[in-house]
Amino acid sequence: MPEMPEVQGLVDFLGERTTGLTVTKASVANIAALKTYDPPIDALVGATITGAARHGKFIDLSTTGPHLIFHLAKAGWLRWYEQLPSTIIRPGKTPIALRVAFDDGAGFDLTEAGTKKSLAVYVAREPADVPGIARLGPDPLDPAFTRDAFAALLAGRRTQIKGVLRDQSIIAGVGNAYSDEILHAAHTSPYTLAASLDDAEIDRLFAAMTATLTDAVATASGKPPADLKDAKRRGMQVHGRRGETCPVCGDTVRSVFFADNSLEYCPTCQTGGKILADRRLSRLLK
């Protein structure tokens, strides 16, 4: 799933490449991906791109007309073309959910792999008209989001810190991968209750979150969409590295599996050597 750093990379690329261009076509190939009807998708045609912005994991292309806003969800991506293909999109026969063309011949497709379709496209007068944006918590790299503001969000939450970091209504932009990386850098178990963290642990977690995301955003900056996924994978210390060696202590990276995802962690760095139970095995033993 694209998270804040990759989304910011896409925003930077789109802002630089599309600002000043006029939309000549906006075609929806997967009607379920379009979550709004007013303004209609056709309202984008003839509008000029005025900029690009990020709201959590939402990408916002502002125009002289409405905003084109999209969320790539778990399996979505943006495919950029300097010369947009002339092939006809056949609904139901392609992974393409949306195609946008510009007056210089360039354009992009929003694609989604797999059978579970969650990619979402919105045409809105204002970003706050999108419910997911209206519910977002603060951006963790906003200068106004201080250590004390972070501590206030954690206070009283009897929720595992992994879930808190991933909850977009609490903190915007962090998903499964970067929450693993942040917790590893902070030497914190994913199962630690947020309310149980002391001042030193909050200091360490806030510093890890800021550094991890800042470094990842810098890595993504300037890269074209086709290179962002590989850059993300190369930067991971534990996420997606089950069975590999922890680069900090040399222990083996472990996983805990859930219904539709997993988390990765280092026992030595994060849990005092304790191996966390695999939820799949626990269910089989009941």
Protein described:
The chain has 286 residues and is an alpha+beta fold. It has two domains: 4-134, MutM-like, N-terminal (N-terminal domain of MutM-like DNA repair proteins, Alpha-Beta Barrel), CATH 3.20.190.10; 147-285, Helicase, Ruva Protein, domain 3. Helix content is 30%, strand content 20%. The chain contains nine helices and ten strands. The chain has helices at residues 4-18, 131-134, 147-154, 161-166, 176-185, 199-220, 225-235, 267-270, 279-285; strands spanning 23-28, 49-55, 58-63, 67-71, 76-81, 96-102, 107-112, 120-124, 254-257, 262-265. The chain has a four-stranded antiparallel β-sheet, with no helix packed on it. A four-stranded antiparallel β-sheet has the order 2-3-4-8, with helices on one face. The radius of gyration is 20 Å and the shape is elongated.
Which terms would index this structure?
alpha+beta, 286 residues, single chain, 4-stranded antiparallel beta sheet, disordered C terminus, N-terminal domain of MutM-like DNA repair proteins, 10 strands, 9 helices, elongated, 20% strand, Helicase, Ruva Protein, domain 3
Q: What's the SSE pattern?
A: HEEEEEEEEHHHHHHEEHH
The end-to-end distance, rounded to whole angstroms, is 32 Å
Largest sheet: 4 strands, antiparallel
Structural class: alpha+beta
Cofactor: Zn(2+)
Catalytic activity: Hydrolysis of DNA containing ring-opened 7-methylguanine residues, releasing 2,6-diamino-4-hydroxy-5-(N-methyl)formamidopyrimidine
Pfam family, one: zf-FPG_IleRS
Protein name: Fpg/Nei family DNA glycosylase
